[in-house]
Amino acid sequence: MTALFALATSLLWGLADFGGGLLTRRTPALTVVVVSQVITAAVLGVIVTATGGWSEAGPRLWYAVAAGVVGPVAMLCFYQALALGPMGVVSPLGSLGVAVPVGVGLIAGERPDLLQGAGVAVAVAGVVLAGGPQLRGAPVQRRAVLLTLVAAFGFGGVMSLIAHASTTVTGLFLALFVQRVTNVAVGGGALYVSVRRGGRALPEAGGAAAVRAALPALAFVGLADVAANGTYSMAAQHGPVTVAAVLASLYPVVTALAARGFLKERLRGVQAAGAGLALVGTVLLATG
Predict the structure, then answer these.
(1) How much is the pTM?
(2) Measured between alpha carbons, how far is 246 from 46 in angstroms, rounded to an integer?
(3) Which strand (E) or helix (H) includes residue 3?
């Protein structure tokens, strides 16, 4: 069950990143984050009410609040890094956040067996290579590297926090709702500050009408992201966090394959090799 839920997480996060990347080509990133999270929070509010999740309120929800604060900060750092540095460097570095939940699992006493240990090493190497690391070219700004590392460990922190935010399915719905409401508050505040400083909240082409037309895509990105958080939490609760975290971190492979399938982008040799290694690591982890 751990492998199944974690692989579902990779699929959902990969598709959410692919969709979010397409949307931010036309719409300011902060607007994409805020609008998609508002839609998701509304849907989760209905689900929590229908399932009686309000009764699950307790101290664990502070983990969800923390995840809701860390998530938008990590995403903004990631977008800024992409604007400053080559994507071929930023993308692989962004996957290093897997070290956070893996480290938490090891500190908690988890010890993967030899086969799983090999799977972890192979899968992580595959994820980094699947991002298509740029080995030659212009030097990367230190700020881009720093922002990417902050984003990576922020993403890893969210994975760990949301896994501790609940112990039941109904409690998970409530935790995800609290996380999304916090996302909206933090992202909305950042958007307000950006606009006050002269930034744009609406696309240059189409304005508010363009945002309305993109609502189905924004809803998909938000719901896929929250579903990924949910499946990861279930994966971490059903089995070793070290295994769940590594399998869930395979989402760059999904994003690369989606770009190949929908945008006809050609995979570089290093990306294809990375996807193959990630698959081998997945098999080792699932059978270990």
Answers:
(1) 0.81
(2) 32
(3) helix 2-23
